[in-house]
Design brief:
With 315 residues, this protein is an all-alpha fold. It has 13 helices and no strands.
Length: 315
């Protein structure tokens, strides 16, 4: 693969994670006037229409198996992941959810090992994962070291990264079909929105547009819809196509670090020694997991062939 293309993939992934790491601020503000399901539905509905305006060309899949890939990606990456994550927040601490969801790269690597021939699990990735996980736990606990387990919430939180891992593997397969990335992402959003429709009747949902009259609500919803949804899913899906599901997912380790920095700069939250140590370990772990393994070529040992010495016979 071209070096410039690989650099582009890393840049797209970093931009995506940078935005996703700050979305908690917008969500926190919107939760004052909106329910979690309302935020989820409105942001992806807005993202869908933006992508439609950019590229309205319809993708024509070649078979039902290809269409099934888009259906599964929409249900996993849009509907189930965010829904499970939001429900988990109701039952357990946000710090627990943040830590558990950040192990998505491990599940992605595990699934890719079995379902993607070109992406295999290795000891270097496992080492980086364990170091990064230690850092993520330190950030999540924030120096308190007080463990409060909740079986329902924590189990749901563990399910969320598994669903995201499935989505990453599906997008890797979709990228191999060579469809336009914006059209492919829009199709994923379409099936994700369809999957959300039943939840609108199960959870609190109101079409009260007066709430958008407040500048804070409008700007933060635009940030989630245009930035975190329309832009980021396109850049993430493109990066998965370039770098692969495993290498792209490693950047998820950085989400708690970016969230920590955003909390300090925007919300003026206190940073402890534990969070600083955790941020350092997370960066080191992500670097180890992402770094290429340098193969040392074996030295060729030249063996001199001993030619048989011809015998001379005298008659």
């Amino acid at each position: 693969m071209d070096k410039r293309q690989v650099t582009t993939g890393h840049l797209l992934t970093f931009i995506t994670i940078l935005i996703w790491g700050t979305t908690f601020i917008s969500t926190k503000i919107l939760l004052i006037d909106f329910s979690p399901v309302e935020i989820l539905f409105f942001r992806f509905l807005m993202g869908y229409f933006v992508l439609f305006l950019i590229s309205s060309r319809r993708i024509r899949t070649q078979s039902f198996s290809e269409e099934l890939l888009f259906i599964s990606a929409g249900l996993c990456g849009v509907t189930l992941y965010f829904l499970i994550e939001n429900i988990a927040l109701v039952y357990t601490l946000a710090s627990h959810v943040g830590v558990i969801v950040s192990i998505a790269p491990f599940f992605t690597a595990l699934l890719a090992h079995f379902f993607l021939e070109e992406e295999k699990l290795n000891t270097q990735f496992i080492t980086g994962f364990l170091i990064a996980l230690t850092g993520i736990i330190l950030i999540g606990l924030n120096g308190s070291f007080l463990l409060q387990l909740n079986p329902i919430g924590d189990l749901l939180a563990f399910l969320a990264p598994v669903v995201w891992a499935i989505y990453s593997v599906l997008m890797r397969k979709i990228s191999g079909l060579n469809y336009p990335i914006i059209g492919a992402t829009r199709r994923v959003f379409f099936y994700g929105l369809l999957g959300m429709l039943p939840t609108l009747f199960l959870f609190e949902f109101h079409l009260n547009f007066k709430r958008l009259g407040e500048v804070a609500n409008a700007t933060n919803l635009l940030y989630l819809g245009l930035g975190a949804s329309a832009l980021c899913f396109v850049t993430w899906n493109r990066a998965v196509g370039i770098l692969g599901a495993v290498k792209t997912s490693v950047y998820i380790y950085l989400v708690p670090v970016i969230t920590l920095a955003a909390s300090f700069l925007i919300l003026h939250e206190k940073i402890t020694w534990a969070t600083l140590t955790g941020a350092f370990l997370t960066l080191i772990g992500s670097y180890i997991s992402e770094r290429k393994i340098k193969m040392i070529p074996k030295k060729r040992i030249r063996v001199r062939s001993k030619a048989p010495i011809p015998r001379s016979y005298h008659t």
